[in-house]
Amino acid sequence: MKESMAKSCDRISELPDGILESILSSLPMKVALRSSVLSKRWRNLWKYLWIHATTLDFGKEFAKDQTQEQFVNTVNQYLQLHSGNKIEKFLLHFYPGEHYKANVEKWIEFAILRGVEELDLIFCKATEKVAGPNLQLKTLSVIVTDAYAVDIFAPNLKSVHFHGDILYGYDFRNVSALEDVFISADGYEHTEPEHDFIQIFSGVSHIKILTMCIAPPMHIAMLEEYIPDNLPLSLPNLQELQIIIGGQIGEEYLGYTFCFFKHTICPCLEKLFIDLSGSYAPWKPDTAKEAEEPSSCFFYNLQIVKITSFRGSDTEMKMVKFFLDKAIVLESLVLVVASDFHLEKDIDNIKDGDGVASQSENCNVPLRILHDQLLKLPKASTDAQILLFEHWEVDTSLCPKHKRAAYHLDNICCY
């Protein structure tokens, strides 16, 4: 009876190799490796699958419960088994330190020599170089902490995503095919060093899509005060811009935002996304000087402006007024209110006469009243629609190219 049940339970092992390999290919590599202990039938199936694998995932799940030495030895063993000529995607999440830096460089070279098209790297304390005249790489994602510099030389590269510390150097060379860049030091904006964002963006000035944190506008504001000859910044092909501000916007950050548009030439800009999502804190008096709106700044092709985590504060309303006043052909201004937007706040929080939300401790106003305020604002474009959404109303029609991710750098590397 038991023998009959065992045979019945192991019918899956009787399937053809092709089907079993297909099953294993849908599993993480560490899980597929464990299948080798099931029976003789399964012992080497994962090896056949791995030999020609086009996606090599040495990510967080792979690194789990391994020391640095174990991780390095395991990756080396896997790469020795791999004999395929093509890698489409290579993921590596690791803390190499100085001791294993040579291994990391060897692994990246391994992927590059096999024509890797998508490279996803998460490092701690590293200086990384991704280079080669015949590099087929099209997408590069780098997350780093306590790093020094990133050097990219990739003629076929179309997309770069960088998140982490503000580094001493970002070197983009021969990236003529590059179309979109995500560069964010969200949470690290006030850390040293203060590097030259003008130089960084000059190396990718031809891009069409850009996502950035508030650090570049901060840098431009500093240049305006101390080194104005280094301005303006030119992004002549830019069509979509997303600014990640990471929380409520006060006069200081609003001033940085205004300063960016004052000194940045982007005549083709069509879509603008401003992300204010972040932890809410009760409003406190703003000690920064009042943000100065650039009178000579106009947007002649800007059609879409979308602001997420909107709360209707004075500074946010000032920003809305700016875009309505300066965007000549604006079609839609989309505001998605924050998840902590209080619809039951007392309407006495509205300033008398000017129709703007009071920036008191209870700076939120009822949604209906806020909508009425917005409709009364003057517009340079008579066709502009003002659309107000609650946070749970999913609006997938107007989304930026890049999604903001919550990176937890302290827990992603193998120590």
UniProtKB/TrEMBL annotation:
Domain (F-box) spans 9-53
List, alphabetically, the SMART domains matched. Answer: FBD, FBOX
The record's section on SUPFAM superfamilies has: F-box domain
PANTHER family the record matches: F-BOX/RNI SUPERFAMILY PROTEIN-RELATED (PTHR31900), SUPERFAMILY PROTEIN, PUTATIVE-RELATED (PTHR31900:SF30)
Q: What is this protein called?
A: F-box domain-containing protein
- Which species is listed as the source? Coptis chinensis
